[in-house]
Specification:
The protein folds into five domains: about 45 residues, LysM domain (Membrane-bound Lytic Murein Transglycosylase D, Chain A), CATH 3.10.350.10; about 60 residues, Roll (Membrane-bound Lytic Murein Transglycosylase D, Chain A); about 130 residues, Membrane-bound Lytic Murein Transglycosylase D, Chain A, CATH 3.10.350.10; about 200 residues, Rossmann fold; about 120 residues, 3-Layer(aba) Sandwich (Rossmann fold). Helix 1 crosses helix 13, helix 7 packs across helix 8 and helix 16 packs parallel to helix 17. The strands form eight sheets. The protein has an eight-stranded mixed β-sheet, with helices on both faces. Strands 16-15-17-18 form a four-stranded parallel β-sheet, sandwiched between helices. By secondary structure, it is α/β, with parallel strands linked by helices.
Length: about 650
């Protein structure tokens, strides 16, 4: 039944764009008209008419209009920077309560309430829900009360001059030269997307006393992000505070969000900053752990989802036909599972204030179909493409969208993909899993007795293990068998014995784990592998033996704990009546990660440069540049099977 429901949702998605514009409500006040309301929010009258068609005939006092949110902060454009809350009051919404009444009751503005409850940008208060009411310091409250209320109007640079773009100039350099932020420069020049020498720009008149700024080999420009500190920037760019202030005299007046700074591309030893590990400030580490706390770009995100639904096989008028196809088409089931997770992620992101315009295409598992989809549809302004599922179709999509620099995220392929700068591999490769396990063993094996058991088909990984663990002992299997007598001489009774088992042979794995289980009665033994392959799922392998040996293995995901309450899991079970599988959870985690990265950093590429690692229900993401081009997810879990057969992440 779940698949039939998701299939129906998919067919709706093909015919209708899943559009969910972020918006706020405006109650029409006396003497207001559409023109004045548009001016107040810094938008066009057509934008109001788009969401309120009846407004063309005039508006009445007290009526509500839907206002699209365009400011990155989620506030109405031109709203002054709000004070930061000191603490919060949890308020349970009662019958007939409104945001306006709560703002009067707690003496805070309506925008302050929405700022800390982002779901209220896209929906009204719900009876029984609990929201956070911010409590500000007395000085902030006093400032708010003594400042006369002024109509909100767009922040504008009224005095402008013209600037002709020179070769190699960037938006950062031009903004810095004229004492502007990049956002201010872009708002003055909305039609200029890519800088070309000779183009004339509108700029401010506050020209800094320095020559035209052009990036070179020694310096680059950096736009200050929210919550960053001067100390954090000195750590990030490996430069002293005095040197950073010397390069940027405006820092003497304090660090401000949106400032464009001139920073070195090399550290004090002359090394390229991209080639060394940059210590990250504590505040940045906290921000990177949960991007939902760092959202600043609440513009609607345009996503494209490409999956092999194989809808040509389905007769939409016959449920029995659909069920039969679903039973026989594993790829279709995977696609529908993944799609159901994507839909849940869109709902979660919307509650955080990020709305999504989603377009869904059926790739039919054919690169030619992917090419045709891209050729016959408009991909302008697409922020990211999720899918297709498999190597050939993912590479085709990335190749076709390369000129537009649209990110393509391959969700489940673990094969080595072609190097293209817009191709992101979201599932760690088998080689990454192996390397992560070897690194774990090397970093944690001090004082342990290491034993390696590997058959002839795994000689390559055995060599890697020996290089990383030169003191390890070797036990060679006798064909497809390893006996207790073969392992026993290599064990040590005065320390923990870590045995690394490398094989895909069910017979070898069965004999080895049984022998270790018997030997563990008188010895401390733990079992490890770099490759938990499908042979471990055989009935010949006894799970109780693996649990007793605290079996460790690398994995791209962790299985969620059903005993722990999780909102996504509970919502999914309530909606579909089943527990989501790992493809569904991956669709949810991956899509939510993409949306939050766009909401926090505006582009996926910037989030990669910031070295951000994120974690959700079962998956975590840490994208790193690949040597041959593109990016791969290097986040790997080391999982441990406990004695009670539960799974946990190894310390």
């Amino acid at each position: 039944m779940k698949f039939i429901i998701v299939l129906c949702l998919f067919f709706q998605g093909l015919s209708l764009t899943a559009y969910a514009q972020a918006y706020k409500y405006h109650t029409v006040a006396p003497e207001e008209n559409v023109f004045r309301i548009a001016q107040k929010y810094g938008i066009s009258t057509e934008a109001i008419y788009k969401y309120n068609p009846d407004a063309r005939n005039g508006v009445n006092v007290g009526s509500k209009l839907v206002i699209p949110i365009q400011d990155e902060t989620g506030n109405a454009p031109g709203t002054p920077a709000a004070p930061q809350a000191v603490t919060f009051i949890d308020h349970k919404v009662q019958r007939q309560e409104t945001i306006y009444r709560l703002s009067k009751q707690y003496e805070v503005s309506e925008e302050d309430i929405k700022r800390y409850n982002k779901q209220l940008y896209s929906k009204e208060l719900q009876l029984g829900e609990t929201i956070k009411i911010p409590v500000f310091s007395k000085s902030a409250v006093r400032e708010t009360r003594t400042t006369p209320a002024q109509p909100s109007r767009p922040v504008q640079i009224t005095n402008t001059r013209e600037h002709i773009i020179l070769p190699k100039e960037t938006k950062y350099g031009i903004a810095r030269k004229y004492g502007m932020t990049v956002n201010e420069l872009e708002s003055l020049n909305p039609t200029v997307d890519v800088l070309q020498p000779g183009i004339m720009l509108k700029v401010g008149t506050n020209v800094l006393d320095e020559p035209v700024i052009i990036t070179g080999d020694d310096f680059q420009f950096y736009e200050v992000q929210p919550q960053e500190t001067l100390f954090g920037l000195t750590q990030r760019f490996q430069v002293s505070q005095d040197s950073l202030i010397a390069l940027n005299p405006a820092l003497k007046d304090g660090l401000k969000f949106g400032m464009v700074l001139k920073v070195p591309t090399k550290d004090a030893r002359g090394r390229e900053l991209e080639d060394i590990e940059i210590p990250v400030a504590e505040s940045f580490e906290k921000r990177s752990a949960d991007l939902s706390n760092s959202l600043k770009d609440f513009s609607t995100k345009n996503l494209v989802l490409m999956l092999p639904f194989n809808t040509s096989k389905v007769n939409k008028d016959t449920i029995s036909n659909s069920r039969g196809v679903l039973q026989n088409d594993r790829v279709m089931r995977i696609s529908l599972d993944f799609y159901s997770g994507v839909l849940m992620a869109l709902e979660t992101a919307k509650e955080m204030g990020i709305s999504t315009n989603l377009k869904v295409y059926d790739t039919q598992q054919q690169p030619g179909t992917v090419s045709s989809i891209i050729q016959n549809n408009n991909f302008n302004n697409v922020h990211a493409v999720i899918g297709p599922l498999f190597q050939a179709t993912s590479e085709e999509a990335a190749s076709r969208l390369l000129n537009q620099n649209i990110p393509v995220i391959s969700p489940i392929s673990n094969r080595e993909l072609r190097g293209m700068p817009n191709l992101y591999q979201a599932r760690p490769s088998d080689e990454m899993l192996t390397d992560a396990m070897i690194n774990y063993l090397r970093d944690n094996s001090q004082g342990k007795n290491i034993i390696i058991i590997a058959d002839s088909k795994n000689s390559a990984v055995k060599s890697k293990l020996m290089n990383a663990l030169p003191n390890a002992r070797l036990v060679n299997p006798a064909g497809n068998n390893v006996s207790s007598g073969a392992i026993s001489p290599s064990l040590m009774s005065d320390r923990e014995n870590w045995i690394i088992l490398e094989s895909e042979s069910v017979a070898l794995l069965g004999s080895a784990t049984s022998a270790m289980y018997r030997l563990a009665r008188g010895n401390r033994i733990k079992l490890f592998t770099t490759n938990k392959n499908s042979s471990y799922d055989s009935d010949i392998i006894v799970n109780e033996h693996l649990g007793r040996l605290e079996f460790h293995y690398p994995s791209e995901y962790k299985e969620f704990d059903e005993t722990v309450t999780d909102r996504f899991i509970d919502t999914y079970k309530s909606k579909y009546g089943v527990v989501p599988n790992n493809y569904t959870v991956r669709g949810y985690d991956l899509t939510l990660d993409v949306l939050l990265r766009l909401g926090a950093m505006s582009t996926l590429e910037r989030s990669v440069k910031e070295n951000i690692e994120t974690e959700y229900v079962e998956n975590k993401f840490l994208y790193r540049p690949k040597q041959n081009g593109g990016f791969s997810n290097n986040a790997v879990y080391i999982m441990k099977l406990n004695n009670d057969l539960t799974l946990s992440v190894a310390n």
